[in-house]
Amino acid sequence: MSGKEFFVERYERLGWKFEDVKPRQAIRLNVTNVEGKNLEERLQAIGVQLDKVPFLETGHWVRNSKVSVGATAEYLLGFYSIQEAAAQIPATLFADLQGKTVLDACAAPGGKTVQLADLMGNTGAVVALDIKKRRLAALSNHLERCHVSNAVVYPFDARQVSRLKLKFDRVLVDAPCSGNFATDRDWFKRRTLKDVKRNARLQREILAEAAACLSDDGELVYSTCSLEPEEDEVNMDWAVNHLNLQIEEVDCQGQNGLTEVFGKRLDASVARCRRVWPGETQGFFVCKLKKVGER
Amino acid sequence: MKAITKFAVHLGAKFSLDADLTVNKGGRYFLLNESLLGVARKDFYYAGTYLGKVKNGKFFPSFNLLSMLVEGKANKIVFEKKAAWLFICGRDVFRAGILAVYGSRRKGDHALVLNEFGECLGFGRIVCSLVGAAKKGEVAVKNISDIGDFLRREI
């Protein structure tokens, strides 16, 4: 059960007609570092033209650029990060982050960790986890480049977070997932339904551990860049039924989460999730959860 | 910690660190803040502000540390746009590109290299006296470390 035809047919059954897309390149300003810097003017002077992303406060599309946006002095000084527009959504869904203790459960290469630190104004603490050495090096470089001073990185699997014996006010689970065709030209050749199901199981294990270390009035945001409902809505339905979590309303880009998946009816609250089909952005899924009774 | 203060002296700066908040992790130095103390366990990989590392007895400063030193009385040389860009590309920079010098002008001393906006791009060694008129094509600063390293590291 694999191949383009197989997955495209699944998407059609979920209500989306496949189209080949090319997501636009996007950057996110690191507000803490660019205050008073006239960054847009400076970038324009070197031939980088930006368009504001309408659904993001600090996100910009790169409309046109004479230089590589990943090699400007402003990039190397940490004034902005290259971050896909839909991937900028999850961190913005948390209520007040200032001074909070935050977990970024699957952190590398660190785009969202830096975004969280920026939203926190380098106050409080971000605990970032990842297991792969190469990815940890990329994460550390990202933190250094962007002058993040409130993060601690551990070389742990997200399923071991209870080792830290900490409770978190905010938890981001940007789960390892199957990805989607919009950012991987060979996606249809490489992925099978078996991969999807294996990832979905891993995601549940991470979610269970993350939920266990969430403070009673804490918030958990779950996201993937997978279009496969097993990794998205079906997992959220499972979280509602097994982890004493409830899904919160969010105000962000995307369509309502699917409440019926291949003939299986899910909890009605799953509609509060947001599903972004590929277009100007890559495909994405995001959901905000709280412990039951804490809304 | 001695390695860091000694490095600062090389740049003509005085720099002190709170010993309770500074951690040496296998030769890598990190500066924590109060809110990190409660979440930083012994087995962290990275924490707070990375200050630099000691390797084979030599100290390699982080760009965070260099940026912190800009705030103080360190030797600083400000370069115009093109020279600043060449410096980021790993090149030594010509005296003709200097906009301003703060602190030492002496050959052999070390100095932070700044762009026209006062942002720290790295540091280098002054390789000619910066007093008097510049000779044509005279190299002023030999590049030791620059922020282009973030790109080189990823290769």
Structural class of chain B: alpha+beta
Q: Which parts of chain A are unreliable, with pLDDT below 50 for 5 consecutive residues or more?
A: none
Low-confidence stretches of chain B: none
CATH level 1 name of the largest domain in chain A: Alpha Beta
Largest interface: A-B, 31 and 33 residues
Number of helices of chain A: 10
Shape of chain A: globular
Query: What shape does the CA trace of chain B take?
Result: elongated
Kindly report how far apart the N and C termini of chain A lie. 40 Å
Radius of gyration of chain B: 17 Å
Mean model confidence by pLDDT of chain A: 96
Content of β-strand of chain A = 15-25%
Our count of domains of chain B comes out at 2
Helix content of chain A: 25-40%
- Spatial order of the strands forming the largest sheet of chain B: 7-11-10-9-6-8
Distance between the termini of chain B: 30 Å
What is the third-level CATH name, the topology of the largest domain in chain B? Archaeosine Trna-guanine Transglycosylase, Chain: A, domain 4
Structural class of chain A: alpha/beta
Task: Count the DSSP helices of chain B.
Answer: 5
Summarize the topology.
The complex is a heterodimer of chains A (295) and B (155).
Chain A: H1 4-13, E1 26-29, H2 31-34, H3 39-45, E2 48-52, E3 59-65, H4 73-76, E4 80-82, H5 89-92, E5 101-104, H6 111-119, E6 125-129, H7 133-145, E7 151-154, E8 168-174, H8 187-190, H9 193-212, E9 214-224, H10 233-242, E10 245-247, E11 255-256, E12 260-261, E13 264-265, E14 274-276, E15 284-291
Parallel strand pairs in A: 5-6, 5-8, 6-7, 8-9
Antiparallel strand pairs in A: 1-3, 1-4, 2-3, 9-15, 10-15, 11-14, 12-13, 14-15
Chain B: H1 2-10, E1 22-25, E2 28-31, H2 34-37, E3 46-47, E4 49-55, E5 58-61, H3 63-70, E6 76-79, H4 81-88, E7 93-94, E8 98-102, E9 110-114, E10 120-126, E11 139-146, H5 149-154
Parallel strand pairs in B: 6-9
Antiparallel strand pairs in B: 1-2, 2-4, 4-5, 6-8, 7-11, 9-10, 10-11
